[in-house]
Protein 1
Amino acid sequence: MKKIFIILPLFLSGFLFSQKKPQKKPVKKTTVAKFNYHDEFRRISDEVMTNGTAYENLGELTKGIGSRFSATPGYMKAVEWTEKKLKSIGIDMIWRMEAKAPVWIRGKESLQIKAANGDWTNIRMLSFGNSEGTGGKDLTGEIVLISSTSELNAMSIKQLKDKIVFVNLPMDPKIINTNDSYLITAKSKLISASVIAKTGAKALIIRSLTTAMDDTPHAKMVYYEPDDKIRIPALSIGVKSADELEKLLKSQKVTAKLNMTAQSKGDTTNPNIIAEIQGKKDSKVIVLGAQLDSWDFGEGAIDDGTGVAQCIEVLRTFKALGIENNHTIRVVLYANSENGGQGREMYAAYVKKKEEKHVFALGTDAGGYSPRGFSLDMPPQRRRQIFEWKNYFLPYGIYDFDQTEAIQDISPLKKLDIPLAELVVDTQRYFDYHHSEQDTFDKVNKRELLLGAVAMTQLIFMIDKNW
């Protein structure tokens, strides 16, 4: 990316010399700001907090449509709803961009355990997204508990062959940023179906990645390696069941019986939805991104219906206030974010092929909770420019500009040297509901959702006027 330097003209005053008059000091000419940014921020905030429709839109999307899993009728209903909603706020430029999506059907699934000579007991479960099933047949085996990578490495093939591996690995409560805690746990080799399969084990059970202390299972995506000779089924169970199972395993032998009809049926296509307000000055693009798809259960409210509603709200606010944007303000609502990520890859490929100049990309995928700031994944000089705007954001509770990670749906744009940012929110409750049937509309607070839309609109406004 070419670096852009803005050079301010210097005006030098002449000096008048006279034997009768004393020398005058040069008069400094000051540059008058074109905008009173404090007033513009207040105008944006007043509009969103008074007339914002993000919460009502989220209700329509989640309660009216519900689950929007890739390659299902629910996703296409969401596509049609989104297009109608964008047209209703006066957006003329709307189009679809087809992206590959795997066809995966969860089907029926069950998990039972039995200790010693006891009876079979049902355990709530969720298979990993895109997981192999058991062909509808019972898969039975002794459960082996593993708690660390060192413990896994110390075990022999004989100890794990034909066993069902159970990993009870909690998110670290000492890590205050729950996003960091989640990512650290999610990247563990212990919960990789490919790693576990190489030990000779025939299934993987993990403790759900959640901060909640309940028994609701939370889904995860499975990634099989291309060279996997055997792809084993993988599933998660709730926290309470996980802790009870570990306690049981420490005193006696436990057998599991797993039955999953999950199956993959090749690929199809699902569209990204793209909408924009064209720039009045040039065709450079400022893009906002959120995922339109959700898991195949729950309502996909915090993940990521809130982001969809906020992106639409930014466009609505620009239109309602008659803001003359210099650059094109574009929203991309991504397909297949949950079980593949093809939508984001397709958009990045499109930008590269078209050689479109993107000034900035902003993502929102954190649940619509109270906004705290923006994570800035960009060159230092760009970060410094945004730091200079802190005082404008402080009255709205936006103070955190120190983080440097961008969310997955806009992350492919980093390869194209596009500055990235992510809306940072208070995430302490996010992983209570993330990837579970508890992800429903009632978990979202209207005021928090709108405040996030305010902050996003304000940042987009500043980028448009200054970059």
Protein 2
Amino acid sequence: MKLLEIKIRRFKELITGILLKQGTHWYLAKQNVVDYVLDGFICINRHFIMYENEIHKDTILYKILSLKNGTKKDPDIYNDSILNGYDSFFSFLQTNQILVAICLHNEDAVFVGKIKDVSDMSFLLSSYDTDLNESGTMKIPFNKVRYIQMHTDYLNSINLFLDNND
């Protein structure tokens, strides 16, 4: 297991997570959101990574997360090839209709939605507001995305609500 703290350019907070896979464009990790809580997956755009620090195996954080990580088998839906490109990654999210939280330049704001279309240099995100009403479609260039969260408790809760209100 490789536990990392990752510094994203222009963000104050470090992202901590268990690195699962890495590709040419993306890191895939289980995110450690607070204390000893692992919540969902995060894909970090390698272009925005300033540095990474490996958390030593002797730390209590490493020991606890190692135990937690070993007790649960994650679905292996994110293959290595999608982490090597922008278009393949966003096409995968679109095809599988995965609800995502996308962070661009402001670490305090994410856009929640599903990818509706993928073009050469951008994608269309059908987004939701905080009351879970559709709030329109946003065109987002691939190279502006700093990270994407998937399968977090927050997103799974929204998905549950949306599925039961269709």
Protein 3
Amino acid sequence: MLITDLAPQSFTASDKVDCLNAEFPESDLPFYRKLGRTNLTVSCLGLGGGGSISSDDTLYAFEQGINYFFYSSDLHHYIYSSMSGALRQLCGRGSSVREKVILATVTYIKSPEMAMAALLDQFVELGIDYIDVFFWGWIGANDGSNLHDCLQLSPDLRGANSVYQRSIERMVGVSERLKKMGAVRYIGASFHDINLAQQWSNSPLLDVVMVRHNVAHRSAQSQIFNQLDQQDPHRPGIVTFKSTGSHTGPLWDVPQGLPEGCWRPSVPDLYRYSLSQNCVDVCLTGWQRREEIDAAIASIKQGKLTSAEINYLNLYGDLHRHQLSPTDISPDHLIYRS
């Protein structure tokens, strides 16, 4: 039985997580989990449109259990638009599976004055009743004041009977789902500056934090992930992106100096690396076709990486960034695989 077979239930979020995970092999890396302090149950793998995936394969991802989808309506819109048909089918008004989908959208226009325009574009394009997580995108080192201004809108943006809900109702029409959920359920921000991410990670105005994280860029571990308590019901949700890419190139390419015969991590291995970290809820992917979906899900079913595997991948990432010489690596820390 797949997530699409599950009828709407009235049980609590924690019960729902247990129920959904029962459809996957028992593992120390549960496929579904609660997204931080939100009331959202998410698949640990999320699908974004950055790989220009088709709508058919987006629907295939949902059929396989993926329920977290990330959509951009302004920057990169041409790339993302290939999945829009599937999102209209899954999340549009009248969809019978809408409550089983977590729709995250983003705007890269960091302006409080433009928030309504960004929302309206997304509501009209996708024909939706509500957005589960609305992200302010690409928050860089110089965006601190802009983010501050944008997040002051959080009380007006999120939840039922908000200012923005009433505005959207006037523009696109009233629906029962919109009245119940509000136009936006939760607020997120996608950070390209880890210091700003750390600064805002405990703000009551921000429900979900999205940060770059991979084997070659690990600062999020010390500054964000390891500062959080997995059992804390008030911690923010954590989503990672860029799990497979670095400024030095794709991380599946073998770094110079890696000894012959050493483990060469696959793309799914790199997803597992992020998901093996403390408090990471979702690893966002940019799949291009369904075969990549199957490979990623099969990898997650293996569970978390071991500490030895994580330590090896740390060395692998340092080699990628030319921060480590092969001669400095102890042979005891290498992992050989055929």
